[in-house]
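Why does residue order matter? Because the sequence determines the fold. Keep that principle in mind as you read this record.
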Amino acid sequence: MVTLLDLGRYTHDEETAETYLRDHGLLISYSHCPYCGGIRLSRIRRQRLKCYGCRWEWGVRKGSIFE
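Structure:
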């Protein structure tokens, strides 16, 4: 169980918080595009991913409980 004090250690910056949420299964790590199935993905902005096959963009929260 995570206490508020523990959570404070993981949320002091965005990158650490995102890693923590991925490690605990609350955010999805994409290995392929959810729209076309392409594998050429890249992070284009802090909170956005892009598929270079279909050029679709989506947020890091897509498919998670935070969507």
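The beta strands are 41-45, 48-51, 57-59.
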